[in-house]
Amino acid sequence: MTNSLPEVLVVAVISFIAGVVVGQFVRFRRVNARGRAVLVPQLDPKPFNGRAFRLIVVALFLASTALIVQFTYHQRGCNAEFQSTSVQLRRIAAEDRALEARDDELRNQRDDAMTALVETLVTPPAPGERVDARGALNHYRTVTAAIDVQRNQLVAQRADLERQRREQPTPKERC
User: Fold this and answer.
1) pLDDT per position in the chain (175 positions), as tens?
2) What are the residues whose beta carbons fall under 8 Å from the beta carbon of 88, sequence distance 6 or more?
3) Three-state secondary structure readout of the chain
């Protein structure tokens, strides 16, 4: 598994800080042993007094501040992309729900037209009257043809929404 650059930088900075802190506690002094100069480690009683240490702390502070600013800037862009995608997907879903509700209404109108046709054909006429089966059938065909046109438009609109949903960029899982 490869690590991303920010993760590597964080590990490097933490390692450097740990090295500096540990290095402040250890000092080396020269000791003559058997006619040779030998470096001997010893604990420093005042580890954080040096000017170099203070400069390193300031440099680390500036570096960490720069990394935080860079991370914040990157995260802001990532959040904006995520929010934009989320808003667009919610808009698409709301439009799709509205079209689905309209499709349900058209199906109910078709069912109502079928019910009216069946009732016209099955209900016995009043004495002396005739059932106008052809007129009832023509009315049913007219109503369903208009419904079919509207449903075809709905299908096209829903297909367009599905295309928009597929084309919507997917934000990165992690920023």
Assistant:
1) 456 667 777 778 888 878 877 777 777 788 888 888 888 888 777 766 778 778 888 888 898 899 889 988 988 988 888 888 889 999 999 999 999 999 999 999 999 999 999 998 888 888 888 888 899 999 999 999 999 999 999 999 999 999 999 998 877 776 6
2) 164, 168
3) CCCCHHHHHHHHHHHHHHHHHHHHHEEEEEEEECCEEEEEEEECCCCCCCHHHHHHHHHHHHHHHHHHHHHHHHHHHHHHHHHHHHHHHHHHHHHHHHHHHHHHHHHHHHHHHHHHHHHHHHCCCCCCCCCCHHHHHHHHHHHHHHHHHHHHHHHHHHHHHHHHHHHCCCCCCCC
Q: Which residue bears the tokens 């046109």?
A: 149
- Written as one letter, the residue type at 82 is F
Residue that is written with structure tokens 């402040």 in the block: 24
